[in-house]
Amino acid sequence: MRTLVIGLVLLTCQVSHALVDVAVTVTVNNPTPAADEPVEFTVALSNSGPDTATAVEALIVLSPGLAIPDGSAAAPSTGNYDPDSGIWSVGDLDTTAEPTLVIPTVVTTSTPPPCLTLEASVNLDDDNETDNDRSVAAVRRDDTGRCVDVGVELWTTATDPLICGSTRRASIVLRIRNIAPDVARNVRIDFDQSPAVAPNLRFASSTLCIDGSTAASCLLAQVGPDPVFLWLTSDLFTNPQSTSFTLSISSTTTDVDFLNDNNEVAQQTGFGAFSDCAGLVPDDVGIPISPSCFIATATYGSPWEPQVVRLREFRDRFLLTNLPGQVLVEVYYSVSPPLARFIADKPALRTLTRVSLTPLVTTITYPVPVLLSLVLLMLLRLRSRQPRELPG
Fold first, then answer.
1. H or E element: which one contains 358?
2. Which of 20, 61, 137, 332 has the fewest CB atoms below 10 angstroms from its CB?
3. For residue 15, what pLDDT is reported?
4. What count of other Cβ atoms lies within 10 Å of the Cβ of residue 168?
5. Among 103-112, 213-222, 309-318, 329-338, which stretch is predicted with the lowest mean pLDDT?
6. Domains in the chain with CATH codes
7. Crossing angle of helices 2-12 and 367-385, rounded to 10°
């Protein structure tokens, strides 16, 4: 048993995280049906890979006013569809497969709203492109009806400059999306911060905001299928300690928005304490580094060693994008220089530090194999603690 588990641990160290890109597309054959007139929706899935997606499930949601008629059933080309839960269980999906689910429906009301929809979505941990994980098709009351779904979200919170500077400006990005068949017209985006941490927070100068916009309200002529990014900036301010605030964002449109639960969002965000990083020089993304100042650089001898690059990438992707991570980076910058200078000219301490950093670098580089290895080692440990039966 011990040999088998060790073999599995070694095997998992060669496994890399799967990369898949599952896309969902929904189409309809009768966009303006009368009451009780058949309407057929087709949901199609594809995977751009490069790896095979496993345990794929699509969630199908029909608007009230649409229903599968008695005596009819959805027809999946692959897997099974449960009409009660709305889940289409597809299974594994490689890059050559293109499964479909055909759903027959009828309009069940004689006075339907301006639009009725069928929404299909997938949610996979390994999916490296989530913008195509949801699709909507609609039927309209008449040819003049429009169906839109404008959603807002806080995309990033940062400062300008990004790290060094005792006084900085807020640099906040909002993302506006419309996952719907029609282009949304006359879209208005408003925001508010509470408490007011960033002074004079406002929409930055942008050609996207048309006449009639204000500092806290951006008017967009239209929002189509491609996301729109809007930038908020502020006056210069000091921030000697970490602060948080709630940013509320809302959207309205003159068209019929069939899904209202994503029109408003209130999200807590904030900034880490500002410092000027005196005596440091910027790296390739504007973050201060010095071969004699930071522990990782001093340990490996160069800021361009692969291990240091991986640690910097982890910082940029997972720490600088959120308030707790920014605080951790600021603390590291404050305590690292004296420690780095102490070990820089001591080969034995550099080697010891390199050994200490190896588990962290390995976990960042190969998160899934490391996790699997830990689970298997725990199982081995538990098995070794089980009492052995005495021979009879």
1. helix 347-365
2. 61
3. 40
4. 21
5. 329-338
6. 22-140 (2.60.40.1510), 150-271 (2.60.40.10), 281-365 (no CATH)
7. 170
Q: Hey, what amino acid is at 236?
A: L
Is the bond leading into 338 cis (omega within 30 degrees of zero)? no
Report DSSP letters for 81-103, one per residue.
EETTTTEEEEEEE-TT---EEEE
In angstroms, rounded to a whole number, what is the distance separating the alpha carbons of residues 96 and 225? 26
Q: Which residues contact 194 (CB under 8 A, 6 or more apart)?
A: 245, 246, 248
Give the mean pLDDT of the chain. 81
Angle at 114 between CA 109 and CA 119, to 5 degrees: 85
Nearest to 238 by CA among 170, 157, 332: 170
211-243 pLDDT, tens digit per residue, is: 899 999 999 999 998 889 999 999 999 999 989
pLDDT at 392: 52
Q: Is the whole-model pTM more than 0.70? A: no
CA 392/CA 389 separation, integer angstroms = 9
How many CA atoms lie less than 13 Å away from 181 in the CB half-sphere? 19
Q: In what order do the strands lie in the sheet with 53-62?
A: 80-82, 87-93, 53-62, 115-122, 134-140
Q: Rounded to a whole number, what is the distance in angstroms from the first to the last CA of the chain?
A: 22
3-state DSSP call for residue 173?
Answer: strand
114/112 Cα distance (integer angstroms): 7
Between 267 and 350, the higher pLDDT residue: 267
Distance, in Å, from the CA atom of 381 to the CA atom of 15, rounded to the nearest integer, reads 23
Query: Residue 53: beta bridge partners?
Result: 93
